[in-house]
Amino acid sequence: MSVYLDWAATTPPDREILAEAMEVSLERYGNPSSVHEPGKRARATLEDARIKAAAALGVKPETIFFTSGGTESNHLPMLSLLQRPVRGTIAISAIEHPSIVEQARMLELTGWKTLVIPVTPDGLVTPDAVLSTIRDDTSFVAIMAVNNETGAIQPVREIGSALMDRPSGKKKPHFHVDAVQAAGKIPLDLSAQGIDSASISAHKLQGPRGIGLLYMARKLEPFIRGGGQETGIRPGTENLAGAVALSRCLEKSCTSAHHQDAQDTMAYLIGALNDTKLISIIPGTRTPIDERFSPYILQCTNERIPGEVLVRSLSERGVYLSTGSACSSKKKGRPVLQAMRVKPDMQQNAFRVSIGNATTTKDIDAFIAALIAVFSAL
Amino acid sequence: MEPIDNTNAIYLVKVGELTLKGGNLKDFEQRLQQNAQLYLEGKRAKIQIRAGRMYVEGPVESAGAIEYALSHLVGIAGWARATVVSKDPEAMQQAVVTEALKAKAAGMKTFKIEARRSDKAFPLNSYEIARLMGEAVYDAGFLAVDVHHPDALITVEVRERCFIYGPENPGNRGLPCGTGGKGLLLLSGGIDSPVAGYRMLRRGMKLDCVYFHSHPYTSPEAQQKVEDLASILARYGVGTHLNIIPFTAVQQHIRDNSPPDYATIMLRMCMMKVANMLCRMIGSRTIITGESLGQVASQTIENLTATNSCAEYPVLRPLIGMDKEEIITTAKEIGTYEISILPYEDCCVLFSPKHPVLRADLAYTTELYNAMKIDELIKAAFDSREHKRFGWL
After folding, report:
1. Does one domain contain both A164 and A293?
2. In chain A, N or C terminus with fewer CB closer than 10 Å?
3. pTM, entire model
């Protein structure tokens, strides 16, 4: 028996959605930019996917741009900063995904300066922290909607309004929200005041790899140029099958009732972990049902065994999870936990459990049994 | 005059330290030739050693294989691909100018001709050859003369044929592998131990390696790193064997039965015990480690003394007096550095004390060791070893 508890890294794909995407690939092979009949049919399918994705997210279709995934959606608004004649500062939270952090480092090489917005020990970015970090020359702010390691839900709505409400005369920076772990998982209102762009990836929602979208209410001058597809925001022949699959994923996940199930499963998981007396939750203040956290992601730690060793030992017992972000698990250190001032030992021993709509309490029981077995063996 | 065969690639190889040997020179030469033959099996290459030179000649399509062999062969000081021409001054001049052109293309600006004549019947002496060849390059006009610090040294050797070659590639020097007995290298995924192994290889030693893993505390990637390192050593050492010892139970026993600050020394002592068993089994006469005095806590002279007390064979520590920079330089040269710095640890932090003892007392450590009653676990670890062989290609 195997138990997959690494849904935040990627999800087992939805067979129906993939089959539909495959069908689209085979049937709608025309290039959406072509003027002939197959081209037109492909264009219509693409625009239909855009409308559906927009509807699921509660935004206008013209604000949706299909991309290759989360990383690219995070990069496009950042790269557009390269078009600015004057360099200034960008502000990112201390817990952003490597695709934001590393791109910020790249921008530094071109003259931009990065300001880091601190988080509370619970891993939350407050509007006050944002306001006290940004400066008059801050052109870009990035805060993720749900942290990929702790599940902490960031008050992006409040931050958006706080940025809007600054004294007149101060230019509002572009506010980008990495919504990769939030879309389809928690209530998310991208049309909220002050949010200028957001990124979403299909494979976190049981869709295929290589497709995502960028929501952009306020258009930026694109840096990447080409055939003008996606109104120039993301040139390159469109991934039609991917776009259809992503829109289906969003339709399924944004409207379905499984969020309550996830909440129940998470409460059960936290309860079971607490009962073992081996594991502590990060942050310590997180309760089994806690509105401040995504019910899909849980960060834990322990006193004794390094996270990496636990992950390896659990894998041998058929339980699959990660230490932190799959994108940074090969690197040393845990920047997110460090930003939360977690003690170094506890950072090293930390691991992430992330669940999905197929996760059952039986899976959790099997995980807990394996965990106890590992602790007694090591 | 001997006909010149241009379909062959010919290499002139300077043998290194071998030339200092007296009565047993033949044995060393023979071993060098055998090793070269192993590298070039199936490549239709002829290898001869004559008058302090090794000649490797093979079809042009074997040139890549020959160059791979020469850059890994231990016991040679340098090598170059030579152009062979008849002993005709005009043909020689032409070949020298071609070499000069190659040097120019490689960005060199100055040259010097070095001439040697072992065929005393040749009408020109070394000095006259050098002058004549130098004139040809000078007249061609693309390199300037610099007899003190030339960028390109072009050598003309008049032997039974005339060999002409440009700047020499450095060899690995040392003595041919296999002339110095067999040693067992304690190999980890770090920077030092592969370098220690390489240094002993260069003294003619044949190497076998031993690696201790503590799965699941250490990752399969950490072991893969060690296997990759062993495969690099194998290229210089005409192959090697890697013995992999599962040491988790031993480490857990140490953790549970000795003071934390002595854990590392206890572990090193246990490793020596396994090394003894392996040496006996494979016929190794020595244990080789990458220890460098004072580099880490387990490498103080007191702690080395404690570790040593468990070894039944001489422990060679070729890096003992080297600093980290020197070790890293060699690691980069032999191609192990990039692997060694990969982030996979081969010892879990769980077993590494925060404050290891710095100056262990031999009597006390021996007492601690005996009190652990760990010998059976060590034997069991030895018995469940895994073995992998790495070839030289």
Report:
1. no
2. N
3. 0.82
